[in-house]
Design brief:
This protein is an all-alpha fold. The chain has one domain. It is built from 20 helices and two strands. Strands 1-2 form a two-stranded antiparallel sheet. A hairpin with a 2-residue loop joins strand 1 and strand 2. Belongs to the TrkH potassium transport family. This is Trk system potassium uptake protein TrkH.
Length: about 500
C-alpha cells in the first residue's frame, strides 16, 4: 500500500509538470497573431488560434491546480521525465494541428502530420505554400523554433523549477552547459535566439524580404526546413542566400555544448570535438564524390555543380531539408549518398535528427581502439576518451553497447518503414529516401509526401518523425513504465 501511495504521488508530480507545459503550449498558439498588424487580411483566422489556446490554457491550469502539492520540488527520474516529454509532445502536436482543421486547411491526418513535422523540425509538408496565408506560414515556423530548442528546454528556461534533470535529459539534452540545469536551459535559449536574430539580419542583407528572412532563419537554425516558397531556397537562385543558409544549417546541427566552447574562445577544444571532426570529414568527402559521380550529368558549369552539391550535402547531413531543386533527376549514386547522410544525421544535443554524429564517431573510435588493443601488452590499461563539448568523455564499455543497440534499433525501424513503402507500390530507392527523411527528421522528398499521399503513409511518417525526434528508448521506457505502473496500481 505504501508503494502504491508513492507511485500515485510521483504521478501527481508528473501531471503537474504536464499541466504547466500545456499552459505554455496554449501561449505558443497566440504567437502567430503577432503577424496580424502586418497582414490584416489574415484577421479571419483569429478565432482558429484563440479558441484552442483558451481551451488548452484552461485544461493546463486545471491539471496544474489539481496536482499542485508539496512534492513539487522532488527531482524527477529519467523515466518520469520521459513520460512528461512524451505526453507533452503529443499534447503540443494535437493542439498545433487544431488551427489547420478549424480553418478548413487540412483534415485530421494531414493536420497532425504537419504539426508533427513542425515540432520535430522535419519540414516534410502537405500544404501548398503559394496558397497558404502568412499567419499559418508563421505558425509552422514557430513550431519549428520551439521544437528545435526543445519544449522542455523552453519551459525550464522560463517557468519550470530547476529540479528536473531527468526531464532535461529525457528530451535528448545530455550535456549541461552550466552546473545548474535551469541556467543551462537559459543559455541554450540565449544562444539559439541570438543565432536566429543574426540569421534574420544576414538574410535581409543579402536580399531576402523580412517575413521570408524570419521564417527561413528559424527553419535553417532549427534544422527544420519549412519554407515560405514552394521551391524552397531555390526560389531565390541567390548564392548569398544559399551561403547564409549553409552557415545556419551547420550551426543548427552542432551540439550546444560545442557552441558554448566556441563562444568562450576555446577554438582548440572546438576543433578536437569528435562530432565537429566527423561533420567536416563527411562534408569534405561527399561534396566532391556527389559532384563527380552524380551531378556532372546535370550541370555543365563547375560553379553550378559545386553550389548544388555543397548545399544538398549540408542540408542532408544537418537534417534541415531545404533544397535548391528536386531529386527526381538524380542518379542512384547521388540519391543513395543523400540517404546515407540523412541516416547519419547531425550532432547530439543539437536541433538535428538522425542516428547522430556522436554515435557514428563513437563506433568508429571503438573499432580503432579494438584494433589497437591487439598490439598492446596483455595487461595494458587503456583509458579511451573522446572530446564532447569542452570536456573529455571517458568511454565505458556500456556506452559502446548502448550506442550499438540504439543504431541496431534505428536501422531495424528504418527497414520496417521501407518495407511498408514497398508494400504500397513505391520503388526501393524512393522508399529508402522518403523514410530516411522522415525518421531522420530531415524533410527532403522525392515527391511521395504530399496532400494526396495515402493516409497510411502519412501516419507512418508521423510515427517515424516522432520516434526520430524524441529517440526510441525514451519513448519505449516511458510507455513501459506507464504500463507497468498501471498494472501494479490495478492489483488488489
Amino acid at each position: 500500500m505504501r508503494y502504491k501511495k508513492i507511485i500515485r504521488g510521483r504521478y501527481k508530480l508528473v501531471f503537474n509538470y504536464i499541466g504547466v507545459l500545456t499552459m505554455g503550449i496554449a501561449v505558443f498558439l497566440l504567437l502567430p497573431l503577432l503577424v496580424l498588424p502586418f497582414y490584416p487580411q489574415d484577421i479571419s483566422y483569429l478565432n482558429v488560434f484563440l479558441l484552442p489556446s483558451l481551451v488548452f490554457l484552461v485544461l493546463g491550469f486545471l491539471l496544474w491546480k489539481v496536482t499542485n502539492t508539496a512534492q513539487e520540488q522532488v527531482s524527477l527520474s529519467l523515466k518520469e521525465g520521459g513520460i512528461i516529454v512524451l505526453i507533452s509532445w503529443l499534447v503540443a502536436i494535437i493542439a498545433s494541428a487544431i488551427p489547420f482543421m478549424l480553418a478548413g486547411k487540412l483534415n485530421f491526418t494531414q493536420a497532425v502530420f504537419e504539426a508533427t513535422s513542425g515540432w520535430t523540425t522535419t519540414g516534410l509538408s502537405v500544404v501548398d505554400e503559394a496558397q497558404t496565408s502568412h499567419i499559418f506560414l508563421m505558425w509552422r515556423s514557430i513550431m519549428q523554433f520551439f521544437g528545435g530548442a526543445g519544449l522542455i528546454v523552453v519551459m525550464l528556461s522560463s517557468i519550470i523549477h530547476p529540479y528536473g534533470f531527468g526531464l532535461y535529459n529525457a528530451e535528448g539534452r545530455s550535456d549541461q552547459l552550466l552546473p545548474h540545469v535551469k541556467r543551462s536551459a537559459k543559455l541554450i535559449m540565449l544562444i539559439y535566439s541570438g543565432y536566429t536574430i543574426a540569421g534574420v539580419i544576414l538574410y535581409y542583407i543579402v536580399g531576402m524580404g523580412l517575413f521570408d528572412a524570419v521564417n527561413h532563419s528559424i527553419a535553417a537554425l532549427s534544422t527544420g526546413g519549412f519554407s515560405t516558397r514552394p521551391a524552397s531556397i531555390g526560389h531565390w537562385d541567390n548564392l548569398g542566400i544559399e551561403m547564409v543558409t549553409w552557415i545556419l544549417m551547420l550551426l543548427g546541427t552542432t551540439n550546444f555544448a560545442t557552441h558554448f566552447a566556441l563562444l568562450k574562445g576555446k577554438f582548440k577544444t572546438f576543433i578536437k570535438n569528435g562530432e565537429v571532426r566527423l561533420l567536416t570529414f563527411l562534408v569534405a568527402v561527399f561534396v566532391p564524390i556527389v559532384s563527380y559521380f552524380s551531378l556532372t550529368e546535370l550541370y555543365s558549369s563547375l560553379p553550378d555543380l559545386m553550389r548544388r552539391s555543397i548545399f544538398e550535402v549540408i542540408t542532408a547531413i544537418s537534417t534541415t531539408g531545404f533544397s535548391l531543386d528536386t531529386f527526381t533527376n538524380w542518379n542512384a549514386f547521388g540519391v543513395l549518398s543523400i540517404v546515407i547522410l540523412m541516416l547519419i544525421g547531425g550532432g547530439t544535443g543539437s536541433t538535428a535528427g538522425g542516428i547522430k554524429l556522436y554515435r557514428i564517431y563513437l563506433m568508429y573510435k571503438s573499432l580503432v581502439w579494438e584494433f589497437k588493443s591487439y598490439f598492446l601488452p596483455q595487461n595494458a590499461v587503456q583509458k579511451n576518451y573522446i572530446w564532447r563539448g569542452e570536456n573529455k568523455l571517458y568511454i565505458k564499455p556500456e556506452y559502446i553497447r548502448e550506442t550499438a543497440n540504439y543504431i541496431y534499433l534505428y536501422l531495424i525501424t528504418y527497414a520496417v518503414g521501407v518495407l511498408i513503402y514497398l508494400a504500397h507500390g513505391y520503388d526501393l530507392m524512393e522508399s529508402m529516401f522518403e523514410f530516411a527523411s522522415s525518421l531522420g527528421t530531415v524533410g527532403l522528398s522525392v515527391g511521395i509526401t504530399a496532400a494526396d499521399a495515402p493516409a497510411s503513409i502519412l501516419w507512418l511518417e508521423t510515427v517515424g518523425m516522432l520516434l526520430g525526434r524524441l529517440e526510441f528508448l525514451v519513448i519505449f521506457f516511458a510507455v513501459a513504465k506507464m504500463v507497468k505502473d498501471v498494472k501494479y496500481l490495478a492489483t488488489e
